[in-house]
Amino acid sequence: MTMEITIISAETLCMNGKPIRKDTYVVVHTQSCTKFFKTRTEEEGGRKNPSWNEEFLVDGANNITLEVQWKTWLGFKSVGAARIAVSKFVSENSLQFLSYRIWDEKGKRNGC
């Protein structure tokens, strides 16, 4: 089965208690981690939340992981991730808009 996933935006992203509004991107991993997709880097910033509005076609995945990363001058840092069982939101011929909270590597939820 092929799914179309659109990464639209993120709200209230934080790193060390400070808001992140630019230089972010999302990596979409399948359960095997052998195939992944990456959005462009949001470079606008300012007062708005990061947005990408990018579509990806994912084949045969049971689980996907969405990881928000932040580009810094030292490389990149993981802001947080959400692992999602595809069975939770897939049904025949349905269009759904879903929102997921991301969690950092310490198991704390991200958000200012």
UniProtKB/TrEMBL annotation:
It comes from the Eukaryota. It holds the Pfam family C2. InterPro entries: C2_dom (IPR000008), C2_domain_sf (IPR035892). This is C2 domain-containing protein. SUPFAM superfamilies: C2 domain (Calcium/lipid-binding domain, CaLB). It comes from Vigna unguiculata (Cowpea). Gene3D superfamilies: C2 domain. Residues 1-104 form the C2 domain.
